[in-house]
Amino acid sequence: MKLPIPLTFGNLLLLAACALLLIVRLVTGPEQLDRPDEGAAFGAFDPSTILRISLADEAPEGGNAGEPLMLVRKSTDEPWTVNQRLSYPALEYLVDKLLASVDNLRVSDLVSEEAASHAIFGVETGPVLTLEAPGTAPWSFVLGNAGREGGGTSGYLRAVGGERVFALSGIGGLSSDPRAWIDSSLVSFDASTVERMEFTIAGTGVALVRDDKGRWGEEQTGVAAQRVVAEDLIGFVGALALDDVMPRAVELSESGFAAGALVLRLDGIKDEQPWSVSIELGALAEDGRRFVRSSAWREAGRPDWAGLLPGAVAADLEGRVHDLLLGIGQ
Q1: What's the CATH number where 246 sits?
Q2: How many domains does one find in the chain?
Q3: Which of its termini does the chain have fewer beta carbons within 10 Å around, N or C?
Q4: Is residue 19's pLDDT more than 70?
Q5: Tens digit of pLDDT for each residue in 175-187?
Q6: Does 232 lie in the same domain as 140?
Q7: Residue 35 pLDDT more than 80?
Q8: pTM for the whole structure
Protein backbone atom coordinates (compact mmCIF):
# COMPACT_ATOMS: atom_id res chain seq x y z
CA MET A 1 0.00 0.00 0.00
CA LYS A 2 1.34 3.37 -0.97
CA LEU A 3 1.28 5.95 1.84
CA PRO A 4 -0.18 9.39 0.94
CA ILE A 5 2.71 11.08 2.80
CA PRO A 6 6.28 9.87 2.28
CA LEU A 7 7.86 8.69 5.56
CA THR A 8 10.86 10.95 5.36
CA PHE A 9 12.77 11.90 8.50
CA GLY A 10 11.27 15.42 8.42
CA ASN A 11 7.72 14.11 8.11
CA LEU A 12 8.28 11.73 11.00
CA LEU A 13 9.39 14.63 13.19
CA LEU A 14 6.30 16.61 12.19
CA LEU A 15 3.98 13.70 12.99
CA ALA A 16 5.70 13.22 16.35
CA ALA A 17 5.23 16.91 17.20
CA CYS A 18 1.52 16.78 16.30
CA ALA A 19 1.08 13.66 18.41
CA LEU A 20 2.79 15.34 21.36
CA LEU A 21 0.50 18.36 21.09
CA LEU A 22 -2.53 16.07 20.99
CA ILE A 23 -1.36 14.27 24.13
CA VAL A 24 -0.80 17.58 25.95
CA ARG A 25 -4.30 18.73 25.05
CA LEU A 26 -5.86 15.48 26.24
CA VAL A 27 -3.96 15.58 29.53
CA THR A 28 -4.30 19.24 30.40
CA GLY A 29 -7.77 19.85 29.01
CA PRO A 30 -8.85 22.79 26.90
CA GLU A 31 -9.20 25.07 29.91
CA GLN A 32 -5.44 24.98 30.42
CA LEU A 33 -4.66 26.34 26.97
CA ASP A 34 -4.28 30.01 26.23
CA ARG A 35 -7.51 31.72 25.30
CA PRO A 36 -6.40 34.89 23.54
CA ASP A 37 -10.03 35.95 23.00
CA GLU A 38 -10.41 36.21 26.80
CA GLY A 39 -7.23 38.22 27.41
CA ALA A 40 -7.23 41.73 28.83
CA ALA A 41 -7.92 44.43 26.25
CA PHE A 42 -5.26 46.62 27.85
CA GLY A 43 -2.94 44.16 29.53
CA ALA A 44 -0.57 46.67 31.10
CA PHE A 45 -3.36 48.62 32.79
CA ASP A 46 -3.23 48.43 36.60
CA PRO A 47 -6.07 50.30 38.36
CA SER A 48 -4.31 50.20 41.73
CA THR A 49 -1.58 52.56 40.46
CA ILE A 50 -3.88 55.29 39.14
CA LEU A 51 -3.60 58.58 41.06
CA ARG A 52 -5.39 61.01 38.75
CA ILE A 53 -8.57 60.74 36.70
CA SER A 54 -9.82 63.43 34.35
CA LEU A 55 -12.93 63.57 32.20
CA ALA A 56 -13.09 66.28 29.55
CA ASP A 57 -16.34 66.87 27.69
CA GLU A 58 -16.35 67.29 23.96
CA ALA A 59 -16.38 70.97 23.07
CA PRO A 60 -19.63 72.09 21.42
CA GLU A 61 -19.35 73.47 17.92
CA GLY A 62 -17.94 76.97 18.20
CA GLY A 63 -17.84 76.71 22.01
CA ASN A 64 -15.64 75.74 24.92
CA ALA A 65 -15.73 72.37 26.65
CA GLY A 66 -15.05 73.96 30.01
CA GLU A 67 -12.86 72.70 32.80
CA PRO A 68 -12.50 68.90 32.89
CA LEU A 69 -13.53 66.91 35.92
CA MET A 70 -10.47 66.03 38.02
CA LEU A 71 -10.35 63.28 40.64
CA VAL A 72 -7.10 62.96 42.58
CA ARG A 73 -5.53 60.93 45.37
CA LYS A 74 -2.11 61.62 46.87
CA SER A 75 -1.06 57.97 47.01
CA THR A 76 -2.55 54.55 46.40
CA ASP A 77 -3.65 54.23 50.04
CA GLU A 78 -5.20 57.71 50.21
CA PRO A 79 -8.88 58.46 49.46
CA TRP A 80 -10.05 59.94 46.19
CA THR A 81 -10.99 63.63 46.18
CA VAL A 82 -12.82 65.97 43.81
CA ASN A 83 -10.43 68.70 42.70
CA GLN A 84 -13.15 71.21 41.75
CA ARG A 85 -14.70 70.92 45.22
CA LEU A 86 -11.72 71.97 47.31
CA SER A 87 -10.50 68.34 47.43
CA TYR A 88 -13.73 67.16 49.05
CA PRO A 89 -13.97 63.33 49.34
CA ALA A 90 -15.15 61.55 46.22
CA LEU A 91 -17.59 58.65 46.21
CA GLU A 92 -15.11 55.78 46.41
CA TYR A 93 -17.55 53.20 45.11
CA LEU A 94 -18.12 55.12 41.89
CA VAL A 95 -14.40 55.63 41.27
CA ASP A 96 -13.62 51.97 41.97
CA LYS A 97 -16.41 50.92 39.62
CA LEU A 98 -15.01 53.09 36.83
CA LEU A 99 -11.47 51.71 37.18
CA ALA A 100 -12.74 48.13 37.45
CA SER A 101 -14.79 48.55 34.26
CA VAL A 102 -11.67 49.51 32.30
CA ASP A 103 -9.59 46.80 33.97
CA ASN A 104 -12.21 44.14 33.18
CA LEU A 105 -12.27 44.90 29.45
CA ARG A 106 -11.40 41.79 27.45
CA VAL A 107 -10.42 41.19 23.86
CA SER A 108 -13.78 39.45 23.52
CA ASP A 109 -15.43 42.86 24.20
CA LEU A 110 -14.07 44.10 20.88
CA VAL A 111 -16.90 45.24 18.60
CA SER A 112 -14.97 46.83 15.74
CA GLU A 113 -11.49 47.34 14.39
CA GLU A 114 -12.51 49.77 11.67
CA ALA A 115 -12.17 53.54 11.94
CA ALA A 116 -15.24 53.81 9.70
CA SER A 117 -17.35 52.47 12.57
CA HIS A 118 -16.32 55.15 15.08
CA ALA A 119 -19.26 57.39 14.26
CA ILE A 120 -21.67 54.49 14.70
CA PHE A 121 -20.45 53.80 18.24
CA GLY A 122 -20.02 57.49 19.08
CA VAL A 123 -16.26 57.31 19.56
CA GLU A 124 -15.21 59.40 16.57
CA THR A 125 -15.16 62.36 18.92
CA GLY A 126 -16.51 62.57 22.43
CA PRO A 127 -15.62 62.93 26.08
CA VAL A 128 -12.03 61.94 26.82
CA LEU A 129 -11.26 59.90 29.93
CA THR A 130 -7.62 60.05 31.05
CA LEU A 131 -6.17 57.81 33.77
CA GLU A 132 -2.72 58.66 35.08
CA ALA A 133 -0.18 56.75 37.17
CA PRO A 134 3.36 57.78 38.15
CA GLY A 135 6.13 56.68 35.82
CA THR A 136 3.91 55.56 32.96
CA ALA A 137 2.22 57.20 30.00
CA PRO A 138 -1.41 58.21 30.64
CA TRP A 139 -4.25 55.97 29.50
CA SER A 140 -6.63 58.07 27.40
CA PHE A 141 -9.94 56.89 25.98
CA VAL A 142 -12.67 58.42 23.86
CA LEU A 143 -16.05 57.54 25.37
CA GLY A 144 -18.92 56.79 23.03
CA ASN A 145 -22.63 56.11 23.13
CA ALA A 146 -24.19 54.89 26.36
CA GLY A 147 -27.30 52.78 26.75
CA ARG A 148 -28.86 49.90 28.63
CA GLU A 149 -28.56 46.25 27.73
CA GLY A 150 -29.75 43.26 29.72
CA GLY A 151 -30.83 45.40 32.64
CA GLY A 152 -27.42 47.03 33.07
CA THR A 153 -25.58 50.02 31.71
CA SER A 154 -23.23 49.84 28.75
CA GLY A 155 -21.19 52.08 26.52
CA TYR A 156 -18.28 52.09 24.10
CA LEU A 157 -14.71 53.35 24.15
CA ARG A 158 -11.53 53.35 22.15
CA ALA A 159 -8.02 54.34 23.08
CA VAL A 160 -7.07 57.79 21.86
CA GLY A 161 -5.15 57.27 18.61
CA GLY A 162 -6.47 53.71 18.26
CA GLU A 163 -9.08 52.22 15.94
CA ARG A 164 -10.40 49.30 17.98
CA VAL A 165 -13.74 49.88 19.72
CA PHE A 166 -14.73 47.98 22.87
CA ALA A 167 -18.08 47.51 24.58
CA LEU A 168 -17.78 48.86 28.11
CA SER A 169 -20.22 47.46 30.67
CA GLY A 170 -21.10 48.58 34.17
CA ILE A 171 -20.88 52.37 34.01
CA GLY A 172 -22.87 53.74 31.07
CA GLY A 173 -22.64 57.49 30.55
CA LEU A 174 -20.15 59.29 32.79
CA SER A 175 -20.90 62.78 34.07
CA SER A 176 -18.22 65.45 34.19
CA ASP A 177 -20.27 67.37 36.78
CA PRO A 178 -18.23 67.33 40.02
CA ARG A 179 -21.48 67.18 41.98
CA ALA A 180 -22.07 63.65 40.65
CA TRP A 181 -18.78 62.43 42.17
CA ILE A 182 -18.83 63.84 45.71
CA ASP A 183 -19.52 61.62 48.71
CA SER A 184 -22.92 63.08 49.53
CA SER A 185 -23.26 61.61 53.02
CA LEU A 186 -23.23 64.42 55.57
CA VAL A 187 -22.76 62.41 58.76
CA SER A 188 -22.29 58.75 59.54
CA PHE A 189 -23.39 57.08 62.78
CA ASP A 190 -25.29 54.10 64.16
CA ALA A 191 -28.77 55.39 64.99
CA SER A 192 -29.36 52.60 67.51
CA THR A 193 -26.50 53.87 69.70
CA VAL A 194 -27.61 57.52 70.02
CA GLU A 195 -28.05 58.44 73.69
CA ARG A 196 -28.17 62.22 73.63
CA MET A 197 -29.31 65.04 71.35
CA GLU A 198 -28.41 68.68 71.82
CA PHE A 199 -29.93 71.58 69.90
CA THR A 200 -28.51 75.10 69.81
CA ILE A 201 -30.77 77.66 68.20
CA ALA A 202 -29.63 81.28 68.05
CA GLY A 203 -27.34 80.65 71.01
CA THR A 204 -29.91 78.85 73.20
CA GLY A 205 -29.31 75.18 73.96
CA VAL A 206 -31.67 72.33 74.78
CA ALA A 207 -30.56 68.72 75.34
CA LEU A 208 -32.50 65.46 75.37
CA VAL A 209 -31.28 62.13 76.72
CA ARG A 210 -32.51 58.58 76.27
CA ASP A 211 -32.90 56.27 79.26
CA ASP A 212 -32.24 52.53 79.33
CA LYS A 213 -35.84 51.88 78.25
CA GLY A 214 -35.51 54.00 75.14
CA ARG A 215 -37.56 56.93 76.45
CA TRP A 216 -36.45 60.47 75.66
CA GLY A 217 -36.60 63.37 78.10
CA GLU A 218 -35.19 66.84 78.68
CA GLU A 219 -31.73 66.49 80.23
CA GLN A 220 -32.11 69.02 83.06
CA THR A 221 -35.72 68.47 84.10
CA GLY A 222 -36.45 64.94 82.96
CA VAL A 223 -39.66 66.07 81.28
CA ALA A 224 -40.61 63.51 78.63
CA ALA A 225 -40.24 64.14 74.93
CA GLN A 226 -42.15 62.35 72.18
CA ARG A 227 -40.27 59.16 71.49
CA VAL A 228 -41.49 58.58 67.96
CA VAL A 229 -40.69 62.14 66.90
CA ALA A 230 -37.21 61.86 68.43
CA GLU A 231 -36.43 58.57 66.69
CA ASP A 232 -37.75 59.86 63.36
CA LEU A 233 -35.50 62.90 63.63
CA ILE A 234 -32.44 60.72 64.27
CA GLY A 235 -33.23 58.62 61.21
CA PHE A 236 -33.80 61.74 59.12
CA VAL A 237 -30.43 63.21 60.13
CA GLY A 238 -28.63 59.96 59.33
CA ALA A 239 -30.09 59.97 55.81
CA LEU A 240 -29.22 63.60 54.99
CA ALA A 241 -27.47 63.85 51.62
CA LEU A 242 -25.60 66.82 50.26
CA ASP A 243 -26.80 68.30 47.01
CA ASP A 244 -23.36 69.77 46.38
CA VAL A 245 -20.26 71.28 47.98
CA MET A 246 -19.18 74.82 47.28
CA PRO A 247 -16.24 75.03 44.85
CA ARG A 248 -14.72 77.85 46.91
CA ALA A 249 -14.30 78.92 50.49
CA VAL A 250 -17.36 80.82 51.76
CA GLU A 251 -17.19 83.79 54.10
CA LEU A 252 -19.08 83.36 57.38
CA SER A 253 -21.14 86.40 56.55
CA GLU A 254 -22.41 84.55 53.47
CA SER A 255 -22.81 81.08 54.93
CA GLY A 256 -24.57 82.22 58.09
CA PHE A 257 -22.67 79.74 60.25
CA ALA A 258 -21.54 82.52 62.55
CA ALA A 259 -25.16 83.31 63.40
CA GLY A 260 -25.72 79.71 64.47
CA ALA A 261 -29.21 79.30 63.00
CA LEU A 262 -29.28 75.65 64.10
CA VAL A 263 -26.63 73.33 65.50
CA LEU A 264 -27.65 69.72 66.12
CA ARG A 265 -25.33 67.39 68.00
CA LEU A 266 -25.75 63.65 68.54
CA ASP A 267 -23.80 61.65 71.11
CA GLY A 268 -23.65 57.93 71.74
CA ILE A 269 -21.57 54.92 72.65
CA LYS A 270 -20.72 52.05 70.33
CA ASP A 271 -18.50 49.11 71.24
CA GLU A 272 -17.77 50.90 74.53
CA GLN A 273 -16.39 53.88 72.62
CA PRO A 274 -18.09 57.28 72.88
CA TRP A 275 -18.78 59.13 69.64
CA SER A 276 -20.20 62.49 68.67
CA VAL A 277 -21.33 64.14 65.44
CA SER A 278 -22.89 67.50 64.78
CA ILE A 279 -24.24 69.47 61.86
CA GLU A 280 -24.64 73.19 61.51
CA LEU A 281 -27.35 74.67 59.34
CA GLY A 282 -26.56 78.08 57.88
CA ALA A 283 -28.18 80.69 55.70
CA LEU A 284 -29.93 80.43 52.35
CA ALA A 285 -27.67 80.46 49.33
CA GLU A 286 -28.56 82.60 46.34
CA ASP A 287 -30.13 79.65 44.53
CA GLY A 288 -32.43 78.74 47.42
CA ARG A 289 -30.36 75.90 48.79
CA ARG A 290 -29.12 75.96 52.39
CA PHE A 291 -25.55 76.02 53.63
CA VAL A 292 -24.62 73.16 55.94
CA ARG A 293 -21.44 71.75 57.44
CA SER A 294 -20.37 68.81 59.56
CA SER A 295 -18.20 68.76 62.66
CA ALA A 296 -16.14 66.04 60.98
CA TRP A 297 -14.94 68.57 58.43
CA ARG A 298 -13.50 70.84 61.09
CA GLU A 299 -11.88 67.85 62.80
CA ALA A 300 -10.29 66.95 59.45
CA GLY A 301 -8.82 70.44 59.22
CA ARG A 302 -11.20 71.59 56.48
CA PRO A 303 -13.33 74.40 57.91
CA ASP A 304 -13.37 75.86 54.38
CA TRP A 305 -15.78 73.18 53.14
CA ALA A 306 -19.39 74.34 52.88
CA GLY A 307 -22.09 71.91 51.81
CA LEU A 308 -25.45 72.65 50.26
CA LEU A 309 -28.76 71.01 51.15
CA PRO A 310 -31.90 71.36 49.04
CA GLY A 311 -34.01 74.12 50.55
CA ALA A 312 -36.98 71.80 51.14
CA VAL A 313 -34.81 69.26 52.97
CA ALA A 314 -33.35 71.95 55.25
CA ALA A 315 -36.85 73.27 55.99
CA ASP A 316 -37.99 69.73 56.80
CA LEU A 317 -35.09 69.32 59.23
CA GLU A 318 -35.95 72.56 61.01
CA GLY A 319 -39.60 71.55 61.17
CA ARG A 320 -38.78 68.20 62.76
CA VAL A 321 -36.59 69.86 65.38
CA HIS A 322 -39.33 72.40 66.06
CA ASP A 323 -41.95 69.66 66.50
CA LEU A 324 -39.72 67.67 68.86
CA LEU A 325 -38.94 70.62 71.10
CA LEU A 326 -42.53 71.87 71.20
CA GLY A 327 -43.70 68.38 72.12
CA ILE A 328 -41.62 68.21 75.33
CA GLY A 329 -44.03 67.62 78.21
CA GLN A 330 -47.01 66.87 76.00
Answers
A1: 2.60.40
A2: 2
A3: N
A4: no
A5: 999 999 999 999 9
A6: no
A7: no
A8: 0.82
